[in-house]
Amino acid sequence: MTTVTRLDDLLDGHPLGPRIPFVAVDGDVEVATGDLMAKSWMGDETGRLVNVRWQPGRVDAAAMIVEAATASARPGTVLNAATNAEVHPDPAERIALFESCGFEPWQEKEGFWWRDEGRELPEPDRITARTLAQVGSERFARLIETCSADTLDRIDADAMASMGPSAWSAAFLAACDDSTWLLAEDTEGQAVGLVSVGEFDEGVGTITYIAVAPDHRGRGYVDQLLRLANRTARERGFTGMLSDTDVLNVPMMEAFRRNGHSPEARAWHKWMHRRKV
Length: 277
Description:
Blueprint (H helix, E strand, L loop, with lengths): L1 E5 L12 E8 L2 E9 L10 E7 L4 H14 L5 E7 L6 H10 L3 E12 L12 E4 H4 L1 H12 L5 H10 L1 H11 L5 E5 L5 E11 L2 E9 L8 H15 L4 E7 L3 H9 L10 E8 L1
Parallel strand pairs: 4-5, 10-11
Antiparallel strand pairs: 1-2, 2-3, 3-4, 5-12, 6-11, 6-12, 7-8, 8-9, 9-10
Helix pairs in contact: 1-2, 4-6, 5-6
């Protein structure tokens, strides 16, 4: 017989805050474990993350973990669940698990891998880049808010609706290292967009944010920003970058491909689900 036990809240220094651990045991064998994280994977207060792992063939125990975590959440709480083809060996099984437990599809993201092969990189010849220290956080936050107003990223759109555009923009800016943000201006000093290149893993970077200002879209500035991102990754000593974008954002996916970022080079592909308790 399989039983699920909720352990005491554990403050373990996890970046998503305190977690409530659960364990499923069949006889004396641990067959599934899970956690109810205090925050979503974005590190904000828009939801809590359900993280679950199980032994092969024991998806039934995993479902018990998910239901126990759901029962432990306060009414009105939004629960998030993530699946990644590069992390989870059977994404279809994991997706089916969450959907059988009442979670609904929320967002799907495609990963893009860029490797620095040491070749000469094209320069962004139509823009000038300025850092956050040079420009100031207020101008950056306003531009993030303007660029994100009609975002095709479903999670960002929902977070802005929940937190308010200004609060979300300020929180997003604060979540990234100051040194990662670059604001791009055209030859007349007009802000045309911005990009942030942060660290994904040791030696690997990621584009944490990229956007073109609404009034300057359709003029090729996204390619200028990606050129800037590639060169910035090299300057920071990254051997490559792993970034992702909502599959609804077809223009961004096409821009990634044009600038040497490949969706085929890595298995990275994410599915996000959520459920309101």
